[in-house]
Amino acid sequence: MVNDTAPPFFPMERAAACPFDPPPALHDLQDQAPLTRVRLWDGSTPWLVTRHAEQRTLLADQRLSAAIDSPGYPLPGPARPRDSKGGGSIGFILMDDPEHARLRRMVTAPFAIKRVEALRPAIQKIVDDLIDEMLAGPRPVDLVEAFALPVPSLVICALLGVPYTDHDLFQGHSRNLISRSVPIEERSASFTALHDYLDDLIGSKLDHPDDGLLSQLAERVRGGELKRSDAAGIGVLLLVAGHETTANMIALGTLALLEHPDQLALLRDSDDPKLVASAVEELLRYLNITHTGRRRAALEDIDIAGVTIRAGEGVIMANDIGNRDPSMFDAPDDLDLTRDARRHVAFGFGVHQCLGQPLARLELQVVYSTLYRRIPTLRRATELDAIPFKHDGAVYGVYELPVSW
Amino acid sequence: MKITLDQDKCVASGQCVMAAPDVFDQRDEDGIAVLLTSTPGDTDADDVHHAAAVCPAVAIRVQD
């Protein structure tokens, strides 16, 4: 079939009335074919992969490169100038194996399931204390500021050995770094500021080690296994990814539950850890906050689903629509906390799948099983259409969520 | 049922431990997966198949 229409622009816009759903145009593309062409800001026309099965297959295929300087890599916007101090990359997220694997394995130990599970009492205390403060404070309150951001920030600070008192600094720069509406110069400045901040911290850990992950990286720098700039880059990655994503899942997840009171009631009225775990997976699937797609460049020709991705072409796996694929999930646009959603691709798939997912899951399990039970009358304190959604963010969510009870 | 696990491919996501904690564990030093048994009983079959399906590195092979 000859298709003489120009590929649609990506990313697409969500429908204003459906802030929890992927853009309707993505549904249309998914209906057409597993892979279609889209047009990006720079005029390039990479492949967009919209179906769950092909997304998993391609994300596990090492003939696709995650390195941002690979020919054809579909950049989300103008590239940030490379840091003059050398490297300056944001950790290993934009690298390929074997260097990616070498660096990633330096920081995997604290994210092992049992190590993370051991943090449950400490995270429960953080959550309970913040709820105590909210209950004792004025109403309405912004749930993002009072609860959703502090929970994961406190947790990742403790894990890394970053002083939480610096939260204004790293939260502000993180917000800039992942915004698509902040000018590139300002984003570059925020990256440099974060990189310098982590570099200084690693320097101080060399002299004053503690039991945090940054100290372990500092030891590897001392031993010559790791360049200090790479250590700082890993620190930036873990600090930013460690609080922004989970914070958005807490606030957006709460809003989604408030808009689905039958589902909220299920969670509030149950103390079954299996239902709580299932609810976390379903909210990850349904909300899929990393909504600008997993991006790769083909290093070789790859035949898939009747098309050939040529070497040097860009590929974007739109995991938000992949998680709404009806061939994988029945009634995919329904929020159903009792469904088995565990095969979602919200954390990606393949060797780059989210490193912090056990920690994110645990934090969300504690939050979702505590907040609505302790504040059973929790409600929005403004109209839904007055809530500012992060349409311009690399990570979706809400900028603020006024709540009362 | 026989399981093979490719530790060179493993990315320490821990998905297998979540899916089938009686069959998989993780090394203390780097979180890489280890097999507690390579021939689990029938009662673990569903969990093991699920573990293989969700392993992001496709490092788990199951022969029934």
What's the layout of helices and strands?
The complex is a heterodimer of chains A (405) and B (64).
Chain A: H1 24-32, E1 35-37, E2 47-49, H2 52-59, E3 64-65, H3 99-104, H4 113-117, H5 120-136, E4 141-142, H6 143-148, H7 150-160, H8 167-177, H9 184-207, H10 213-222, H11 228-258, H12 261-268, H13 273-287, E5 294-298, E6 302-304, E7 307-309, E8 314-317, H14 319-322, H15 357-374, E9 379-380, E10 402-404
Parallel strand pairs in A: 2-8
Antiparallel strand pairs in A: 1-2, 3-5, 4-10, 5-8, 6-7, 9-10
Chain B: E1 2-5, H1 15-19, E2 24-26, E3 33-35, H2 45-54, E4 60-63
Antiparallel strand pairs in B: 1-4, 2-3
Q: Average pLDDT across residues of chain B?
A: 95
Query: For this structure, what is the CATH class of chain B?
Result: Alpha Beta
The CA-CA distance between the termini of chain A, in Å, is: 57 Å
Number of domain modules of chain A: 1
- Percent of residues of chain A in helical segments? 40-55%
* CATH 4th-level superfamily of chain A: Cytochrome P450
Question: How would you classify the helix and strand content of chain B by structural class?
Answer: alpha+beta
**The biggest beta sheet of chain B, please?**
2 strands, antiparallel
Shape of chain A: globular
CATH C-level label of chain A = Mainly Alpha
Low-confidence stretches of chain A: 83-87
- Beta-strand portion of chain B reads 15-25%
- Average per-residue pLDDT of chain A, rounded, comes to 94
How many strands appear in the DSSP assignment of chain A? 10
What is the 3D form of chain B?
globular
What would CATH call the architecture of chain B?
2-Layer Sandwich
Can you count the helices of chain B? 2
Discrete helix count of chain A:
15
Share of β-strand residues of chain A: 5-15%
Low-confidence stretches of chain B: none
Distance between the termini of chain B: 4 Å
